[in-house]
């Protein structure tokens, strides 16, 4: 039976690739997309989710709007660096028409809580933006915190951050939320820069999507080329764009793609290291570890899976169950 999955996205170019990866995976049943903020405002993220789902032929998948700003703030504005990397519209200025479908009336947080109540161990939640929706669900429902299986993209344990020497972008959006999630969640897997910056895509691969000459293939190639060009400016030593968010989905499908370090995590919320993901010294001797951090990745195998799965979607053949 296919594993149920909810993607919590701030769409975002690599979020769009994560969505395509999920839709190209027959092991997965994508039961909904919850929108968060980060690369874009939450409402723009939800718009992109709906538009991409329609483009990929899966407008049957519902989209829920989440929290619009961090727990400790009363508003949110897109950072200049986010707009530079993902474009003002979040999808690299790729022109994808608005979807016919609308967002759901139910809130993202209520949908998350209800889904964990209903599906328990059959469900995995993959957040790839600010973790405010997930923390809010945990604060409202201790059962959610207890039972949810979470594989998130964010953080940096063994390498520096990408918005400061300490902080990775998703954690930096809402360090209090991320801290709440890693302290209260019982099964949390962190896919951070330690591994995602080892997995890179180049124009060679996007050329293959473009060659399909389909609306989905062209949009994926246009958006990703924008992203690669931005990476060439901010991190030319890498030689490609980081496949952050799709790697988190890939690990939700197949954890053997990464080497996991069991650890009790915390996030610094004060001082110059605000946003740092690190071991919680107060739980160092607790034999029960509530988090696993990916510290190694099978790069070639992941890239093959990514090209196979996103290739299906780019050809117009999304296969995820429903
Ligand atoms: C993360 O930040 C966002 O810009 C990307 O979509 C990804 O989720 C990488 O640090
Ligand atoms: Ca993201």
Automatic annotation (TrEMBL):
<dbReference type="InterPro" id="IPR036452">
    <property type="entry name" value="Ribo_hydro-like"/>
</dbReference>
<dbReference type="GO" id="GO:0005829">
    <property type="term" value="C:cytosol"/>
</dbReference>
<keyword id="KW-0378">Hydrolase</keyword>
<dbReference type="InterPro" id="IPR001910">
    <property type="entry name" value="Inosine/uridine_hydrolase_dom"/>
</dbReference>
<dbReference type="Pfam" id="PF01156">
    <property type="entry name" value="IU_nuc_hydro"/>
</dbReference>
<dbReference type="InterPro" id="IPR023186">
    <property type="entry name" value="IUNH"/>
</dbReference>
<protein>
    <submittedName>
        <fullName>Pyrimidine-specific ribonucleoside hydrolase RihA</fullName>
        <ecNumber>3.2.-.-</ecNumber>
    </submittedName>
</protein>
<dbReference type="GO" id="GO:0008477">
    <property type="term" value="F:purine nucleosidase activity"/>
</dbReference>
<feature type="domain" description="Inosine/uridine-preferring nucleoside hydrolase">
    <location>
        <begin position="5"/>
        <end position="304"/>
    </location>
</feature>
<keyword id="KW-0326">Glycosidase</keyword>
<dbReference type="GO" id="GO:0006152">
    <property type="term" value="P:purine nucleoside catabolic process"/>
</dbReference>
């Amino acid at each position: 039976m296919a594993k149920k999955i909810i993607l919590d996205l701030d769409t975002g170019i690599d979020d769009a690739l994560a969505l395509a990866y999920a839709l190209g995976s027959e092991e997965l049943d994508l039961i909904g997309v919850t929108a968060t903020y980060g690369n874009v405002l939450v409402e723009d993220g939800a718009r992109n989710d709906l538009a991409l789902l329609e483009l990929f032929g899966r407008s049957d998948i519902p989209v829920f709007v989440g929290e619009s700003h961090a727990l400790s703030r009363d508003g949110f504005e897109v950072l200049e660096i986010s707009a530079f990397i993902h474009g003002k519209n979040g999808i690299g200025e790729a022109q994808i028409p608005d979807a016919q479908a609308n967002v759901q009336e139910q809130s993202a947080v209520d949908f998350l809580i209800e889904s964990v109540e209903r599906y328990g161990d059959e469900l995995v939640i993959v957040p790839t933006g600010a973790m405010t929706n997930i923390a809010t669900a945990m604060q409202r429902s201790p059962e959610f915190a207890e039972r949810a299986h979470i594989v998130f993209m964010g953080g940096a344990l063994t390498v520096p951050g990408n918005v400061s020497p300490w902080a990775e972008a998703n954690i930096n959006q809402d360090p209090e939320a991320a801290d709440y999630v890693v302290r209260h969640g019982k099964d949390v897997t962190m896919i951070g820069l330690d591994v995602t910056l080892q997995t890179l895509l180049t124009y060679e691969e996007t050329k293959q999507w473009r060659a399909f000459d389909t609306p989905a293939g062209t949009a994926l190639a246009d958006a990703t080329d924008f992203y690669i060009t931005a990476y060439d400016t901010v991190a030319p030593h890498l030689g490609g764009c980081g496949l952050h968010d799709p790697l988190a989905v890939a690990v939700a499908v197949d954890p053997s793609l990464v080497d996991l370090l069991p650890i009790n995590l915390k996030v610094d919320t004060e001082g110059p290291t605000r946003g740092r993901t690190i071991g919680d010294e107060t739980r160092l001797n607790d034999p029960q570890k509530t988090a696993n951090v990916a510290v190694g990745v099978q790069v070639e195998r992941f890239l093959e899976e990514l090209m196979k799965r996103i290739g299906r979607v780019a050809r117009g053949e999304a296969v995820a169950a429903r």
